[in-house]
Amino acid sequence: MTDSSRQGIRWWPLVAIWFLAIATIGLFFGLHDADSQIRQALVMKLIGIALGAVSLSVLWLLAFSRLAARTRLGFLGAVALFGSIFVLLFRFGGVSGDLVPIFTWRWTKTAVAKSEGAEGSETIARGSFNQFLGPKRNATIPGIRLGKDWSETPPRLLWKMPVGEAWSGFAVAHGKAITQEQAGEEELVSCYDLGTGKLVWQKRNQARYENPLGGVGPRATPTIDGDQVYTIGATGYFACRSLETGELKCAFNLLENHGAPLPEWGVAGSPLVLERQVILSAGGKEGNSLVAYDKISGELVWRGGDDRAHWSSPVVHEVHGQPQVLIFNKSGVAAHSVEDGTVLWEFPWTRSTGTPRVSVPVALPGNRFVISSGYGAGASLFQVLNTPVGFVAEEEWRSLHLKSKFNNFVFKDGYLYGLDDGMLTCIDAETGRRSWKKGRYGHGQLLLGDDWLLLLAENGEAVLLEPDPEGPVVLGTFPALEGKSWNPPALVGPYLLVRNHLEAACYRLPLEE
């Protein structure tokens, strides 16, 4: 190419494109400090800016660059070659909780099944973690005194193995650990021996849910009640099975029974067993929002409410001495009678109406409850009053200091502990004011004990902390899993059971002497 032809190349549009792209990125970061930014929104904006700049650069190359045709074709060929090599080397592994794309080497394999200290099921059959978030469905497990010095007495791996994709957690009882998985076009209900990790039984159903951002497989955690286990898949397939054998007792499609649409991210509300009823979040209109079936026969007992379901699970709380079923729906919290499903009161939550409602309502003394959502929505505390005209819910405070995207938070001694857009935080439950915010753990999950807080970070690291309103005290850490970990953990005595969409593991945590 001659000097004159080089001078004819029009470089300024390309320079302007990338100057504006970089300046815009810098402006976004300048307007949002690390403590207050809504990270996932920024990530989406940055991805959009980058894709826009690349697209405009290609347009410049083809139409405005004045480069020779052979040179333009060479550049396009190089881009196509680079893209092909990238596709051959990497596979898309979904996104993180902040919507950052995850790519992994195509030859990367999940963990090989192994056992380093397996214990017989008879040794560990005495405890249970029989449902989502534990015995009381509040991510709180009293009475377990964990050892605080993991450097001297580290957690011991019992077993680790690959599992099918899903965001389901484990339910544990009688030495058996039940979870859900995806295998091709089938959803699985799998029963493992807690002490050894060996498969006891596995049952299949033809169903598959997949979302490019939300991933593949079931979302809800099984519920164990006596000798029965209750599950619901991502497309609404509900089943009651024998805990011992997996034999099917009854099954139906919840969404079809109640004329409800499939939620955008799949069905995620875990079954709630209350006396002779199993309660499910259907999300149908005309009295089909929350429903109860006989837990033995599978016959419909009651239905009530009109609100659409989101991804929270029903929970039972006493309100003015009366047990009520609370569910965090699209429009807010609804409380249903346990006897006939009648809606007793509602707390409309109009903050960031379109944000997903995932966490369960957390009870505080005085008939008060806290709810929270991510994507900048924050949290609210409201009190339920018993008036002559019935129950009335009134908001006491709103706060942007707790934004639970798809994890749950806990209450202890007047303070709330949770993940605020991926950072561990503590807020005063009386005022909603933040006491501290420190440590970016991503969108993981946590459990609370008498004097400890156990956090499974999004990167698979297990972190033991002391819940202190003065500041976080990290007592120990260890790598529990590899890869993105969104699934809720289970703890039965000293046995910590964790999983993600690729692998599951069981650890024996040290106890105080």
Please provide a written account of the structure:
The protein has 513 residues and is of the alpha+beta class. Helices cover 16% and strands 39% of the residues. The strands form ten sheets. A five-stranded antiparallel beta sheet has the order 3-4-37-36-35, with no helix packed on it. Strands 5-6-7-8 form a four-stranded antiparallel beta sheet, with no helix packed on it. α2 (12-31) runs antiparallel to α3 (39-64). The N and C termini lie far apart (81 Å). The relative contact order is 0.12. Mean pLDDT is 89; it is low at 1-6 and 33-37.
Outline of the structure:
The chain contains 6 helices and 37 strands.
Task: Summarize the SSE layout with pairings.
Blueprint: H1 3-7, H2 12-31, H3 39-64, H4 69-89, E1 90-95, E2 101-105, E3 114-115, H5 121-124, E4 156-162, E5 171-173, E6 176-183, E7 186-193, E8 199-206, E9 210-211, E10 215-216, E11 223-225, E12 228-232, E13 237-242, E14 248-253, H6 254-257, E15 272-274, E16 277-281, E17 290-294, E18 300-304, E19 315-319, E20 322-328, E21 332-337, E22 343-348, E23 362-364, E24 368-373, E25 378-387, E26 390-399, E27 410-412, E28 415-420, E29 423-428, E30 434-440, E31 445-448, E32 453-456, E33 461-466, E34 473-479, E35 490-492, E36 495-499, E37 503-508
Antiparallel strand pairs: 1-2, 3-4, 4-37, 5-6, 6-7, 7-8, 9-10, 11-12, 12-13, 13-14, 15-16, 16-17, 17-18, 19-20, 20-21, 21-22, 23-24, 24-25, 25-26, 27-28, 28-29, 29-30, 31-32, 32-33, 33-34, 35-36, 36-37
Helix pairs in contact: 2-3
